[in-house]
Each structure stands twice: as C-alpha cells, then as structure tokens.
Amino acid sequence: MIWEEKDEHEYRVVKASEWIPLNSYKTELEERAGVYIFADDDFDVKYIGKAGAGRMVVELKNIMTFEVYSALRRKKDTGATQVKALYTNSDDVALNYENELIEKYNPPNNGIDLLKS
Fold this sequence. Notes:
globular; 23% strand; GIY-YIG endonuclease; single chain; 5-stranded antiparallel sheet; 3 helices; 7 strands; alpha+beta
C-alpha cells in the first residue's frame, strides 16, 4: 500500500523526518522515540518498526545498536530504498501507533522472518 502523507500529521506525531535514502539513516534520523517506515521509490510501504526513546539510531561504544540497523540486519528493508521517521513523545505512543500503521498498511516485511527466506 502506498504511504499516505496524512499519517505524518496524526496528533501522536510530534515531528516527521523527510524520506531519506536507507544508507543515510545514521546521520539523518534523530535519537527519539517513534515509528520508522521503509518504503520503495514509489512510497509502497515495505516495513514499519518502532524505536524507544533514544534508540532510533544510538551507537554505543562503536557497536551498532540501532533499531533501524537491527531491522536492516533482519532484512526488513527488502524492496525498500528509503526510510521516514515519525517521532512521538513516548515509547507507549510509538508502540500503539506502530500497531495501527501495521494494521492499516499490512507491509510485506512485517510478521515474516526474512532471514529464513
């Protein structure tokens, strides 16, 4: 399903990033709670994930412990070329909004283990 811009203006979203190339996520995304979306060049949603406060792109002692990195490692970016973050005020809000968006978009890379494919 194609991403609908109105979901960026939902009351639980305090800030939204631009769509950025997946290879730029470390320098472009903020260390905040929120939901992130992987999509292809046509904005077809491939995966929706969430990050707790300070876990979107945090790197600790040169060990990649990013939520986005973890999703990439698990091949949740299959078919995707870009990422967008929707920042929220809390982990709970991020979790609830992630679930709502997954139900709405039914992304192909959610709910399957792509490492076994």
